[in-house]
Amino acid sequence: MCHVIVTCRSMLWTLLSIVVAFTELIAFMSADWLIGKAKLLSSEDMDNRTGGSQEPYHPTLGIYGRCTRISHMRLSRQDTLCGPYAENFNEIASGFWQATAIFLALGIMILCAMAFVSVFTICVQSIMKKSIFNVCGLLQGIAGLFLILGLILYPAGWGCQKAISYCGPYASAYKLGDCSLGWAFYTAIGGTMLTFICAVFSAQAEIATSSDKVQEEIEEGKNLICLL
Q1: Is the separation of the CB atoms in 147 and 94 below 8 Å?
Q2: Which DSSP state fits 52?
Q3: 177 — alpha (psi -120 to 50), left (phi > 0) or beta?
Q4: Membrane-spanning residues where (predicted)?
Q5: Distance CA 34, CA 167 (A)
Q6: Contact (Cβ atoms closer than 8 angstroms) between residue 31 and residue 66
Q7: Burial per residue of 77-101, b for 16 or more beta-carbon CB atoms within 10 angstroms, e otherwise
């Protein structure tokens, strides 16, 4: 029989699992990993405009995407165009970034799977006498290791030609040149730290759902158990 067990710690772990997965996914898909040096619109673009300021803008570069500003013909309006610069995996600018993409993708897939499974732990707490919380926590820890590997390899690709075109000639492995780190990189780091916190907290969720108080209510025949 399925017993719906809801505790503060188990619900917090479930919510944290979902937040971590979405955080890493958003960071991975973003083009705001590197903020390039300030640029002006080309003179040709400026000639095609009827007005507006010549304020510099900062293009951004991600693992496989980028954002830049374009000026519409005969219009003063400017738009920021974002999209992938690589049409396939082999066109990613650096071999290190390809490795980063692989490790981050593996970590994110595990996190998304664990976020999905965590929702069902409200009703199913174990499979084949194995605690789902402990298994999910172990897999989340493994995902965190994949994320760390990806984040360590990412700066090694700053010396690729694509990064140099954004960051200037002084950019090289682990040296930003004229670039600065964007919010996506910091978000990925924060998400990685939360991943390990989530993995550790899974043990607390296991303790909360298998406590003596829960067992007493199960023996009393209750199917819905809510505990603080």
Answers
A1: no
A2: -
A3: left
A4: 12-35, 96-120, 132-154, 183-203
A5: 9
A6: yes
A7: ebeeeeeeebeeeeebbbebbbbbb
Q: Is the dihedral of CA 86, 89, 91, 95 positive or negative?
A: positive
Residues, the chain: 228
What whole-number percentage of the chain has pLDDT above 90? Answer: 51
C-alpha span between 221 and 130 (Å, rounded): 23
Residue identified by tokens 């595990």 is 110
pLDDT, tens digit, 9 for 90 and up, residues 33-86? 999 887 765 544 444 444 444 567 788 999 999 988 765 544 444 567 888 988
d(CA 10, CA 57): 46
Non-local (6+) Cβ contacts of 129 within 8 A are none
Q: Using CA atoms, how far apart are residues 89 and 81, in angstroms rounded to an integer?
A: 21
Q: Which helix (DSSP H) or strand (DSSP E) does residue 80 occupy?
A: strand 78-84
Report H helices in the chain. 8-29, 43-47, 95-120, 132-153, 161-167, 183-209, 212-219
190/188 Cα distance (integer angstroms):
5
Residue 30: phi and psi, rounded to 5, are -75, 155
Rg (CA), the chain: 24
